[in-house]
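Need tokens for this chain, all 406 residues.
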Amino acid sequence: MADTEVKKVVLAYSGGLDTSIILKWLQDTYGCEVVTFTADIGQGEEVEPARAKAEAMGIKEIYIEDLREEFARDYVFPMFRANAIYEGEYLLGTSIARPLIAKRLVEIANETGADAISHGATGKGNDQVRFELGAYALKPDVKVIAPWREWDLLSREKLMKYAQEHGIEVDFAKQGKKSPYSMDANLLHISYEGDILEDPWAEPEDDMWRWTVSPEAAPDQPTYVELTYAKGDIVAIDGKDMTPASVMEYLNKVGGENGIGRDDIVENRFVGMKSRGCYETPAGTIMLKAHRAMESLTLDREAGHLKDELMPRYATMIYNGFWFSPEREALQALIDKTQETVNGVVRMKLYKGNVIVAGRKSETDSLFDESIATFEDDAGAYDQKDAAGFIKLNALRLRVAARRRG
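Here are the structure tokens for all 406 residues:
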């Protein structure tokens, strides 16, 4: 039953089939005014056509915003300071985009006096959780309308019929074909689900990939890049200062050209099911490897080990939609504190799908002391005799237990 008190709703609107149907459905079901919000977070597609589509459906308040820098600076880069990776494989490309969109939905609702927000996430996926947890964290009493949990348009045939009955333009119907995959793209990644990927045994078709060449087709000569870090963030490439978004755009390009960043994962969704998805994350794959290389030189051992212990928890928070939670923010403060000394340059070698650390240096914060680490004469910098007592102290509990067993 529709809530007749809803007078205005802010819809996360892509201009595609699903959200165009949702727009019309909101107008008809709730009899409300709809405000559309379209975000450019680096999906690589023109977002302005969404304006014409919204106008054609009678929308008066249309928000189309370039959020690429905010996305990279305030969401992706802080996450990579933590080396976050979910279940050992997933670089959280979709997960990290949702809190930014939720934040803007709430802000636009406040600006326009809207009663509710709405999104096109299905009732089976993680995104409904991420959008709504983010919204509730920022506006506790916000009303959320999730059409996929309310309507009966639960098949593509029903959606197409609804579109035809209401004169909603369907681009791929004109072309006589549709993309077989459900895809999501932003500066960090592009994901693929559905069609043959629903069989975990089926190998992805090579023409599915959009951003990367296959490793077999990558150049026979390696590409080198030098990444300059300041407090855990890349601030320059090959000596040229870059913004966070431009860093990611460049690394996506050069990584994709070298066949880097493809992944095929079966993951555990927060809602309880297993899901198979394929991902292209060229920039993220390079950034993760390079950041760990920079930390290996500049980060204290125990601080680094503590980060590694906390990282799976941090990654799960992001995957499950708890970006705006107090526990994530507390962890972020700890992580950011450790990054004060993560300064220097990492040289990366990119070759046929491989990301190889070719060198690292830090003029100000390196903890690597060659005079101690050398296998040659260290001129008394380290007394090797000290190791005997160190070993015996650490062996004490083992020796006591062995005697008792003996």
